[in-house]
Amino acid sequence: MQTATSKLTKKYQATIPEPVRKLLHLQSGDEIAFDIEGSRVHLRKAEPLDLVFAKSLEGTLSEWTSEADEKAYHEL
């Protein structure tokens, strides 16, 4: 098993290591999906169905789009 690591920035962003990008055939602008199973997270290239599902949820999350929320969470 090969292991690759990446360090989180203050905004909780991370660079996907080259071996992972190559394995998943990731290009700049691609979207990724995180599959959560208990305490494990699996990273994969997002599929069209993932993007449709995420888009369908956008209109249901309006309770977190206030100016107060933007101010409180702008660094996340």
Short description:
The chain is 32% helix and 16% strand. It has one domain (18-73).
Keywords:
two-stranded antiparallel sheet; alpha+beta; single chain; 3 helices; 76 residues
Regions with little confidence, pLDDT below 50 for 5+ residues:
none
Principal-axes geometry comes out as: extended
Radius of gyration: 15 Å
Q: Could you give the order of the helices and strands?
A: HEEHH
Biggest beta sheet attributes: 2 strands, antiparallel
Instruction: Estimate percent helicity.
Output: 25-40%
- Please tell me the total number of domains: 1
Within the largest sheet, what's the order of strands? 1-2
Overall structural class, as computed from helix and strand content, comes to: alpha+beta
Summed up, the helix count is 3
Mean pLDDT: 83
Beta-strand content? 15-25%
Question: What is the CA-CA span between the terminal residues?
Answer: 32 Å
Task: Please report the total strand number as a whole number.
Answer: 2
